[in-house]
Write a structure and sequence with these properties.
The chain is α+β, with helices and mostly antiparallel strands and about 210 residues long. The protein has 6 helices and 11 strands. The chain has 2 domains: about 5-100, Alpha-Beta Complex (Ribosomal Protein L22, Chain A), CATH 3.90.470.20; about 105-205, no CATH class. The strands form 3 sheets. The protein has a 5-stranded antiparallel beta sheet. The longest helix has 19 residues, at about 135-155.
Length: about 210
């Protein structure tokens, strides 16, 4: 499939890869050493495809020579320090975001399960809202946005309900929102961007 969707703003960019090629077709897009690393690291074919799809997408966005490493916390970084990176995946898709400063991206498949866990991340002073008369989109968008904020913040033991707050905004097919955190002494503010697709919600955030 190669690059499915991409977007760029001053200072950052992201891409989405739709995982619909065969395993053999995906392997053919990447160096043999990368494929061998995946096969040695994961017994699950799905996890291999997901991992390789992220590398194929990164090659499209940043060039074939860039590699991903991971801190002990699990946070990804680029081996050449050319940019900050954030990674996300959901059923059938992977997303990668690159930028000049800390950032976070999250992609979530559309589904009603989010209603069952809404109390874990929605604050009383937050309004989920609806899109096309469907409140699932609003809840999913808030969940995805807080996942992206968590990745951008890079802190452990973050309570999505207590430490992260999204200011009210009107939900459209795509748009922006403001948010802040109270986990750290800096109390960072965030600017977020979102896109609603038939299959998923995509959110991306950077520090203000």
């Amino acid at each position: 499939m190669a690059l499915f969707w991409q977007h760029q703003e001053p200072g950052w960019r992201w891409g989405v890869w739709k995982m619909e090629e065969t395993y053999e077709e995906l392997c053919a897009l990447l160096p043999h050493a990368v494929v061998m690393q995946a096969e040695q690291s994961f017994s699950s074919l799905h996890r291999r495809q997901e991992w390789l799809s992220v590398r194929a997408l990164l090659a499209q966005c940043a060039g074939s020579g860039v590699q991903i490493g991971y801190l002990p916390s699990g946070k990804p970084y680029l081996n050449d320090d050319s940019a900050f990176i954030s990674i996300s995946h959901t059923r059938g898709y992977v997303a990668v975001m690159l930028g000049e400063k800390p950032l976070g991206i999250d992609i979530e498949q559309y589904g009603a399960r989010v209603h069952k866990v809404a109390s874990r991340f929605m604050r009383e002073d937050e309004r989920a809202g609806t899109w096309q008369e469907d409140d699932t989109w609003g809840l999913l968008l808030h969940w995805s946005a807080k996942e992206a904020m968590f990745k951008c913040l890079g802190e452990q033991e973050v309570d999505f309900r207590e430490h992260l707050r999204i200011l009210p905004f009107e939900i459209k097919e795509k748009g922006e929102f403001l948010a802040h955190e109270c986990k750290t002494a800096a109390c960072h503010g965030f600017r977020g961007y979102y896109w609603l697709h038939a299959d998923f919600v995509l959110t991306a955030v950077t520090f203000l």
